[in-house]
Design brief:
This protein has about 425 residues and is α/β, with parallel strands linked by helices. The chain has 15 helices and six strands. Helix content is about 65%, strand content about 5%.
């Protein structure tokens, strides 16, 4: 019962602190809006690309060069700006200080002529290879006349190709900043367009087709996938950093010392603090989900399993914060220790970017983070709708909650303050 009284008192005190409200609610909400806008927007990422077309005859671009530019546009991956063929690219880069990451695609003069001629050469090469294959594998089953006719055709085509096969493939040049992270992505997209263009020019049909299917029935947005990670991370930082700083501030102001002189038990004080921080964490979750639903249209609304997991996570990280505040007396030191624990846990947990992007040894380290198990279990429930896969996350958080609550009760000094 005393724990409930502590909970109410701490909540009223927190509401009187604008700084506490800001860092508990408004700061995480601001980060949600920033990260959600950057990583969870509805529009697919488009890369700026300058295209300089030198394949111009009579003042007009050739049909094939225009078709290639349209193929680039059809990928919906580029914001294409065309440069006049007389513009010097090097000088253009020097005078365009606003270009943070330059990308220029140059289509050479004679692109259409060389591409068409080369396509004829390639087609003839395919025919020649086919004739050779037929002779080598089926010649023994043909009569003499059929074999002679095919052999004569093969020899004639080979002789003609030896005389005319001087056409070089036109080279499209991509000039890009190799230090930019997007360069490899842009190269991959352009390479795919070039390959598709080559196949069309020689009349090749698909021998292998590709399709993908969505594992989920619902159409999730990018913000839906990030939301569980945001919830887990901010509950963790509020629990570890927030409660550690608050309790050490109470200790410096003598509030804890005066409470220890009352009949209030240390256990009730700790449980009341954990209960109050759990309430704040759950309220923060409601606000973040509500903001995500209104602003980004997220559909990943926590169900009863996710709510239970969120409450367990709140208790876990609040108890960790209470444990730290149990043996750290200085407010600045408590804030430093809390941040030193919270932020590595946040950024090594895979909550903000996939673990696959990290080195192998960091991936192994990340899987020991309770935040990893927290957000991974939340994602299994909220996104993949497989609560049975969240059992490990539940177990890890519940175990840590019990261990650190007991540790907080054991380590917190009470009568000696």
């Amino acid at each position: 019962m005393n724990a409930i009284v502590i909970f109410k008192t701490l909540t009223k005190n927190w509401l009187r602190s604008p700084t506490g409200v800001f860092f508990s609610f408004l700061f995480p909400l601001m980060l949600l809006l920033i990260f959600g806008t950057v990583f969870g927007g509805e529009e697919s990422t488009k890369y700026s690309l300058y295209v300089q077309n030198h394949d111009v005859h009579g003042g007009n671009a050739t049909n094939l060069s225009r078709a290639f530019i349209k193929a680039l546009e059809s990928t919906n991956s580029f914001e294409i700006s065309e440069l006049d063929k007389d513009v010097n690219v090097s000088d253009f880069i020097k005078h365009q200080s606003g270009i943070a990451s330059y990308r220029f695609l140059i289509i050479p003069d004679g692109f259409e002529e060389h591409a068409l001629n080369r396509s004829i050469t390639v087609r003839n090469g395919i025919i020649l290879d086919t004739l050779i294959y037929i002779i080598d594998n089926y010649g023994a089953y043909m009569n003499q006349s059929e074999l002679e006719n095919i052999t004569m055709g093969k020899d004639a085509l080979s002789a003609w190709m030896n005389q005319t096969n001087t056409t070089k493939s036109p080279e499209i040049l991509l000039i890009a900043d190799e230090n930019a992270q997007s360069t490899q992505i842009v190269k991959g997209i352009v390479y795919s367009v070039v390959n598709a263009f080559n196949s069309k020019l020689i009349g090749a049909s698909d021998t292998i087709t590709f399709k993908s299917e969505n594992l989920q029935q619902r159409q999730w947005k990018a913000a839906d996938y990030y939301l569980p990670g945001y919830i887990a991370s901010f509950i963790m930082t509020n629990g570890i950093v927030g409660i550690t700083t608050t309790i050490t501030e109470f200790r410096r102001n003598g509030i804890v010392k005066r409470l220890s002189a009352t009949p209030l038990k240390k256990r009730d004080w700790i449980l009341g603090c954990i209960l109050q921080q759990t309430f704040l964490g759950f309220t923060l979750t409601v606000i973040m989900v509500g903001a995500g639903w209104v602003i980004f249209g997220v559909q990943a609304i926590p169900d009863i399993y996710a709510i239970c997991l969120i409450i367990t996570g709140c208790v876990t990280f609040s108890s960790i914060g209470m444990t730290i505040s149990g043996f750290v007396k200085d407010v600045e030191a408590a804030a430093g220790i809390g941040n030193a624990i919270a932020y590595p846990l946040m950024f090594l947990s895979g909550a903000f970017w996939p673990l696959d992007l990290m080195p192998a040894y960091l991936q192994s380290v990340a899987k020991f983070s309770p935040v990893y198990h927290f957000h991974d279990a939340l994602r299994e429930i909220m996104i993949y709708q497989h609560p049975e896969n969240a059992i490990t996350g539940f177990a890890v958080l519940a175990l840590l909650a019990v261990v650190f609550t007991c540790a907080a009760i054991k380590l917190t000094k009470w009568k000696d303050l």
